[in-house]
Design a protein that fits this description.
It comes from Plakobranchus ocellatus. The protein is mainly alpha-helical. About 65% of the residues lie in helices and about 0% in strands.
Length: about 110
């Protein structure tokens, strides 16, 4: 953001939101989308492998829960990013590599 403000010659004292600066530069935020895409490809790799990482990633690991607010699981974030559906539907789609790649590509193109 600092670089875009500098290129557009917007002084740091100007009260412009980051969204407004992005609109002026005709840019979109892509960091979150890139992170979600990498998480999705990693999840596909882990689930197809089916080892201990699969149990930990899907949250089927037994034990006591820690105190406080529970952390967001990778599956919860990806299920909302890939579209409405259940976790079981997402896990079933992971097994078919071509379907999984298509789902990731469509979600990435939509930009959500």
């Amino acid at each position: 953001m600092w670089f875009l403000r500098r290129m557009l010659r917007i002084p740091w004292t100007a009260k412009k939101s980051n969204e407004r600066v992005l609109n002026e530069a005709n840019k979109r935020r892509s960091l979150v989308r890139t992170i979600r895409k990498r998480q999705a490809t990693f999840l596909g790799h882990v689930v197809r492998r089916g080892k201990l990482e699969h149990l930990v990633t899907t949250g089927k690991f037994e034990g006591k829960r820690s105190r406080g607010r529970q952390r967001e699981k990778i599956m919860d974030g990806l299920t909302t990013w890939l579209g409405p559906g259940k976790v079981l539907d997402t896990l079933a789609a992971v097994k078919d590599r071509d379907l999984w790649r298509d789902m990731i590509a469509n979600a990435y193109k939509q930009g959500t």
